[in-house]
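Subject: Cro/Cl family transcriptional regulator structure
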Amino acid sequence: MRIKGDIIRSVRKQKKLSQVTLAAGICTQGTVSNIENKNVCDSLEILDAICKRLNLSLESVLDDNDEKKLTSLLNHVEDLCNTFKHKEAHSLLQATSINPADFQNKELEVRWLYFMGITNLLGYNNTTDSLFYFYRADELGDPNSIYAILSVNSLGIVYEMANELAKAQVYYEKSIDMLNKMTIKMPIEATKIFFNTAKFYSLIKQYDAAYDLATGGMALNRTYQSLYMLDLLAYEAAFNDFMKSPDLSAPDFKSAKVFAAFNENHSLLSVIANDEKTLVR
């Protein structure tokens, strides 16, 4: 994709970072050089990680073209999905005239496929279309594509909703394995994968695995100094810690309640209130 490499170079120098330091844990120094001097980057995930390290928005370094427009649209769609407005997000995706398949870089198409899948699934319970989009994203994505990994994780959700738990477990486990094999810094979006998989393992009463996954998602938040889904992760950690620890008299929901109150997650607060009445030994 075509990008504004001069912006990357200018901000890097302002922050007194070498190309090697900027690249550390993300890509090679040669990739940073190509970005700055040739205005090209073959990986949206790498470009996004570099922008985050420099405190730049991804849109600010993309050329004014359809790729930039679609990136902006998908950012808005992601915000809507994070607040459970999947039908509205789906309408925006359907309304765009941009064809992601036209782009040379496939990662943007993978991201589009993931959001088409998740909005079909959670907005309309359309499992047929969502399966198509998730499988296609997995097929197109490279090993470092967080949206390809999210798509594999979402295949687990599809089969869990259909009560095909053995199939669901295959895809949940595959998504965690893919996360662990990433060669770039794990993105904050991986929080969803930790949470979804923790919930599943809790459902099948593998409480130790569920607890480890929930605390793994919390650790990722600490890395980014983020509160992303932290209320839900804290709840899963407390619930599964109680379920796996017969010596505990009650779950410790203190952190989950604080984060839920901060996020105004009244649904979770209601769940916690009910659990505090019923989960006692």
